[in-house]
Amino acid sequence: MERNTTAWATGRVRVSPVPKRDHMIVPLGGAQRRLLPEAIPSLFFGTAIAAHVLAWAGLIPVAHELPGFTGGPGPVLAVFHTLTIGVLICTAIGASLQMLPVAFGRPAPRQVTCIVVYCALLAGIVLLVTGLGVNDAMISGAAAASLRSPPVSVWPPSPESSLPPEA
Length: 167
Prior knowledge:
This protein is mainly alpha-helical. The chain is about 50% helix and about 5% strand.
């Protein structure tokens, strides 16, 4: 309870209840406008969770090959790339799409752009892991084409970032 001390000079202190709030209001400095819908980062984070489970499940049948693994394509390398690209890269991209616009005070990327990035990343992961697992250079090459950055603008240009006109 909060004390109402406006009458402290009279010696009487009234105690009034503090109104209960359902949620705390936190000043975000306009960051709310720069946040993506929850579904966009959840796509990346959900894929990271699924890739983590798949990596551990894929490690079970090839566990006997792990101690003698010296490199090269094959199932062990496919499992390793499921963990690195599937978990780490998906988490990093999902977090950066959400945090970078807030940190730099820029508008959030368009949802369509985020979906294109997600689809390209997911296709690249599937192709790369499959290509490494079955030792097929054509499939791995297709993955390289898919994993390169898509030719779309992630952040639309703003007036502050535009170059000055040429003289």
